[in-house]
Amino acid sequence: MGNIQATAAAPLHSSEDADDFGGISLANAKLGAVHGVAGVVGGMVDAPHGAVCAALLAPVVEANVRALHDRDPDSPALDRYAAVARLLTGRDDATVDDAVAWLRETVAALDVPSLGAVGLQPAQYAEVAEKSARSSSMQGNPVALTGDELVGVLRVAGGG
After folding, report:
1. Staple partner for 137: which of 8, 31, 73, 119, CB 3.0–4.6 Å?
2. What is the Cα–Cα distance from 111 to 131, expressed in whole angstroms?
3. Taking a C-beta distance cutoff of 8 angstroms, is the pair 157, 121 a contact?
């Protein structure tokens, strides 16, 4: 966990700081699959939106990178994911797999519950995937994820 504080530009001092930074980030970036799926999940179970987003983050990054490698290997999004890996880990040789590991470690350290722990059932995954695919937030995703890919994300984020 030492990398989290070592790579942060400045520590957050309160939940208000986190809210402010989150709002600034959302206002200046396209939303994507994390937000698109989280909105649907939030309509089905009583769970904090930020916790749902956190549970989805690593599985969505993995699905996006896999889909980009398969369908659009020259996408500049792959370079952006690699840059994020270097920023998160503080290592010049970091890979996207390292970033995913960092995200998983951070989510675990913060005790973010799985989607299953907040009440989402495997029987709901196909419905969530279908509704998410139609979400306007998905237009900001770097690659269109298939229904099967979204169900895969939900399986991982669901804890099983």
Report:
1. 31
2. 27
3. no
Distance of alpha carbon 79 from alpha carbon 102, whole angstroms = 18
What is the spatial distance between Cα 148 and Cα 154, in angstroms, rounded to a whole number? 10
Nearest Cα to Cα of residue 112 among 59, 73, 69: 59
Q: In terms of residue numbers, what domain contains 63?
A: 39-157
pLDDT digits (tens, 9 = 90+) for 18-62: 667 666 666 666 789 999 999 999 999 999 999 999 999 999 999
9 inside domain: no
Quick one: angle between helices 147-157 and 49-71, nearest 10?
130
Find out whether 123 and 129 touch, Cβ atoms under 8 Å.
no
pTM above 0.85, yes or no: no
Residue 59 domain-assigned (yes or no) = yes
H-run or E-run covering 156: helix 147-157
Tokens 């987003």 correspond to 53
CATH number for the domain spanning 109: value is 1.20.1090.10
